[in-house]
Amino acid sequence: MELYLIRHGIAQERTSDRPDQLRSLTAQGQEKTQQVAKKLYSLGLRFDLILTSPLVRSRQTAEILVESQLSSQWQESVHLAPNGNISAWLDWLEQQQYPHSIKLAVVGHEPNLGQWASMLIGNQALGRLVLKKAGIIGLTLPETGSPLGRSQMFWLTPPKFLI
Amino acid sequence: MELYLIRHGIAQERTSDRPDQLRSLTAQGQEKTQQVAKKLYSLGLRFDLILTSPLVRSRQTAEILVESQLSSQWQESVHLAPNGNISAWLDWLEQQQYPHSIKLAVVGHEPNLGQWASMLIGNQALGRLVLKKAGIIGLTLPETGSPLGRSQMFWLTPPKFLI
Fold first, then answer.
1. What percentage of residues in chain B have a pLDDT greater than 70?
2. Angle A56-67/A27-42 helices, nearest 10 degrees?
3. Cα(B150)–Cα(B27) distance, rounded to whole angstroms?
4. Where are the transmembrane segments (chains A, B) (predicted)?
5. Is residue B17 part of a domain?
6. Using CB atoms and an 8 Å cut-off, which of residues 16-45 of chain A contact chain B?
């Protein structure tokens, strides 16, 4: 499995009358995410499925990826919300029995995505991977057995090197 | 310090009458490395200094980076040869007393560079970072103290996403 961890784009600030889950992408966040998506398309990237956190800023990011024809389908996963944990998500993933060849994109939040990538490559020191908003981490998961500590990282990029 | 670990480009195969240290970049290796260097320039990257392994394929890669105006100077370091080790190199680096703001590029070999990056971000599981020929890893080292396990990785890219 090729797994692409994509952080949502730049979003509105949190305020007392705007719950975290309703924060939208800003105009700049939308534009930058669209530019990144366009570049991913021109690089030949395509995803068989996009899974996204149910929070608005992530769903909007996933929608931009779909609009840019990087994938024809996306679905929400509660495991990708900010309070999600990797074990529950990996259990869920195993149950899906996706083909080994699947290219899966996951849209979510920091610090989760960077920490998950660290755990997948076996890094005990978390927080050492810098994943910017609309940035991407690319991983190859092993075909069998737990991916924890047994995956390979082939890509980590901030959006500024894509647009 | 911003540290860019750059693997040499595609080189001639090793043969019984061609010692490893004399292997040159192939025509394809030169062309691909030039394309990568051009892209790095257009992304606004500049290095204050390039350090390179003394082996021919690394020196040629460093020369291409200089020709592409990514840096005005380069020098060889024996610590970057395939049998070099990170402790000796870090000791040497400390002695140079470079300014904290230096942007340093290092041209060398696998598996060293990927392992060194793993050690700098504190990853005990080595060999999980995929660094292709003419690929790049970008790290931010702390201003004081040992960088081992205390650096951050902000970039890892194969050349195919740059050219």
1. 98
2. 40
3. 39
4. none
5. no
6. 43
Local structure of B2: helix, strand or coil:
strand
Q: Which residues pair with B103 in a beta bridge?
A: B2
* B122–A122 C-beta distance less than 8 A: no
Q: Mean of the per-residue pLDDT values for chain A?
A: 95
B window 83-122, beta carbon within 8 A of A: 118, 121-122
Domain residues for the domain of A83 are 2-10+22-161
Q: Who among B43, B130, B153 is closest to A128 (CB)?
A: B153
In this structure, what DSSP letter does residue B25 have?
A: B
Query: Is B121's CB within 8 Å of A140's CB?
Result: no
Q: Which run of H or of E encompasses B155? A: strand B152-157
Instruction: Count up the domains in chain A and report the number.
Output: 1
Q: Is the pLDDT of residue B125 over 80?
A: no
- CB contact (8 A) between residue B154 and residue A158: yes
CATH code at A98? 3.40.50.1240
> Which chain A residues contact residue B152 at CB under 8 A?
128-130
Please tell me if residue A154 touches chain B, with a CB cutoff of 8 Å.
yes
Q: What is the DSSP string of A36-53?
A: HHHHHHHTT---SEEEE-
- Confidence band for B86, pLDDT divided at 50, 70 and 90: very high
Q: What is the amino acid identity at position B158?
A: P
Question: What confidence category does residue B123 fall into, taking pLDDT thresholds of 50, 70 and 90?
Answer: low
Query: What CA–CA distance (Å, rounded) separates A67 from A70?
Result: 8
pLDDT over 80 at B140, yes or no: yes
